[in-house]
Design brief:
Oligomer: single chain
Largest sheet: 2 strands, antiparallel
Shape: globular
Number of helices: 8
Number of strands: 2
Number of domains: 1
Strand order of the largest sheet: 1-2
Radius of gyration: 23 Å
Distance between the termini: 55 Å
């Protein structure tokens, strides 16, 4: 992480913590990657997002399995409140009851899954990478590990792309090939044949813009939050290494506490926004222009 013989500088510390644990298709470690390299994926994001996704599904399944008509426990009550909130939002946006039976659970899963991935930002910056290095890998190279999947653009854009595929699916299912095809060439400027190329180009731009902004919004907020936690960690590290006094230590604890409490709202809000945009885009797939 730093040159041999001295502690890492602030720039080296942040650069190190922004590096993914990357693998190629042969599961070999990758030290340098081009800007676009489809043979390499971020192994840390893949592992953490998969584990957290399975955890989200398991908790929702467990709540559904143990649900009863009597007085609910705390866990059941919390899940019921969450399910009712998502169901109300789905009813307000998607008026097709048959579609809601699929889209509602999808939106609920997306909300819980993204919240869990965002919540990884609340863990100490060096905790999981150090734990993995010391007790699993025994190799300092594997300290390259980012534990917040939603701070990885490949994760958020993959999720927004999946939403786009669902939009295509419901557009075809609800409107049919002819109806959706006519919409692609007749909106927003009109159905005159001269306007068909311009309408289609605008539709393509709209789909791309929605998908990119959907993923970028979540990524940008979580990436910024991750950077702030790194800066706060540097504050504590600077006190520990230089011994500049108790004041910086107190500032480190206070800054970490305040940002953590505020970040609880951020991670919840970002999960809610991504879920709502998912519902809105799928609702638009049901509407005719």
């Amino acid at each position: 992480m730093a040159a041999e013989g001295h502690a890492p500088t602030s720039g080296e510390y942040i650069t190190h913590h922004l590096q993914h644990w990357q693998k190629n298709f042969q599961f070999e470690d990758v030290k340098q990657v081009d800007i676009v390299d489809f043979s390499v994926f971020n192994f840390d994001s893949l592992i953490y997002s998969t584990v957290l996704g399975l955890l989200a599904v398991f908790l929702l399944w467990r709540a559904a399995r143990k649900a009863h008509a009597g007085v609910p426990g705390r866990f059941q009550a919390a899940v019921e409140i969450l399910v009712e909130m998502v169901d109300n939002q789905a009813k307000a946006v998607i008026h097709n009851e048959k579609s809601r039976k699929v889209i509602g659970p999808v939106a609920l899963t997306v909300f819980v899954w993204i919240f869990f991935m965002n919540f990884m930002d609340m863990l100490p910056v060096d905790w999981l990478p150090t734990l993995f290095t010391n007790y699993v890998a025994h190799d300092a190279h594997h300290a390259y590990q980012r534990v917040v999947p939603t701070a990885d653009l490949s994760t958020t854009l993959s999720m927004s792309t999946f939403v786009l595929l669902l939009v295509f699916f419901y557009s075809l299912k609800i409107k049919g090939v002819g109806g959706w095809g006519h919409e692609l060439i007749s909106a927003p400027f009109g159905a005159h044949p001269v306007l068909w190329p311009f309408n289609f180009a605008m539709q393509v731009i709209e789909f791309i813009a929605k998908t990119v902004s959907h993923g970028m919004r979540l990524f940008g907020n979580m990436f910024a939050g991750e950077l702030v936690f790194m800066l706060i960690a540097l504050m504590g590290g600077g006190w520990a290494l230089t011994g500049t006094g108790i004041g910086l230590a107190i500032g480190h604890v206070l800054a970490g506490t305040v940002w953590t409490l505020f970040h609880i709202l951020v991670i919840t809000l970002q999960a809610f926004i991504f879920m709502m945009l998912t519902l809105i885009y799928l609702g638009q797939a049901h509407d005719a222009h």
